[in-house]
Amino acid sequence: MAGPEKTAKNSSGHSQIDGTAKAASLDWDDFRIFTTSAREGSFTRTAQKLRMTQSAVSKRMKRLEKAVGARLFDRGQQGVKLTSEGERLLRHANGAETMLSRGVSSVREGVRRVDGECKLITGDGLGSYWLPAFMPFFAERNPATNLVLFTSPDLGANQTPPFDLQIHYTHPLSETRVAVPLATLHFVLFASPQYLHQFGFPKSTQDLRHHRIADSTFRLGEKGSLANWAGLDEDVALATNSSVILFEMIRNGSALGLMPTYTALVDPRLVPVLPELHFHAPLFLCFESESRAKPAVRATIDYLKEFVFDRQRMPWFFEHFVAPQKEWKRIYDSCLERAAGGETPHAATGS
Q1: The domain containing residue 42 runs over which residues?
Q2: pLDDT in tens, 243-287
Q3: Strand 165-168 relative to strand 116-123: parallel, antiparallel, unpaired?
Q4: Considering the entire predicted model, what is its pTM?
Q5: Contacts of 272 (CB under 8 A, 6+ apart)
Q6: Does any domain span residue 172?
């Protein structure tokens, strides 16, 4: 006696496949292959798109047909075409795909949504020339977080609350405050092309005595950073406690002065002078230990460490000194792209 036919007509006249599997045995990846095959109209093109073999696609579709108990495709030399049962399943599969996409978006939005406020204080140089480029992407990642950004000309001062976070050069005085290493700033002399055209290049530290110096100082009557570093006893052309004023005086050709190496990215026209003479200062992110429990503060800390002061990718923040290079612009652009949610750049190297 002949065995039962593999396919039979149901009461509605549609093709039916015997041996229907239980729903629990369904492989949900088969639906991905199914929807792709339906859109491509070819098992061969589906295999190419999903990086599978054509025979593997065919076997997976036979398995799915057995699981749902109906023929989903009519096979032919020109490719495959959905049966009426296949079209019905495709509508449900597309709906499930849409719902899954919405679910993923909802979860991502829930993860990103950090309600609250974070009050950050930093130096006026970092606050004016470095952080602003990264702040729009912080707002996109944390749309419900209100960031209050204050600047102070004295990075060495230990500010007390109400600030949640402070970026400065020294460890906090209070034992209750946490200090996280954030980056290393390297300082070199910069001058504008017009200054160098008028006064020439200094060839040594001693040669600086014959140049117009702009210097930074935190207190009246004290020597500035450059005067101490270079051992200059003469008066400088300008002394200021503002990194913004110092930078603008260097940029407009009034004097030369010390600035962090990332200045080469802020204004590529500025020229590093005597780059073999440099000094560094560690940068710390400080906060009260209980402040880290606030979601908005924690999100700000994570963003600063991962994107704004990326010590793995930004050579100007490496622990060791790297002189400004043309390659930095490409690295900087890729770091901004990463902060914006683009491709992750490779770690930078430098000696």
Answers
A1: 26-111
A2: 999 999 999 999 999 999 999 999 999 999 998 889 999 999 999
A3: parallel
A4: 0.64
A5: 188, 189, 190, 261, 264, 323, 324
A6: yes
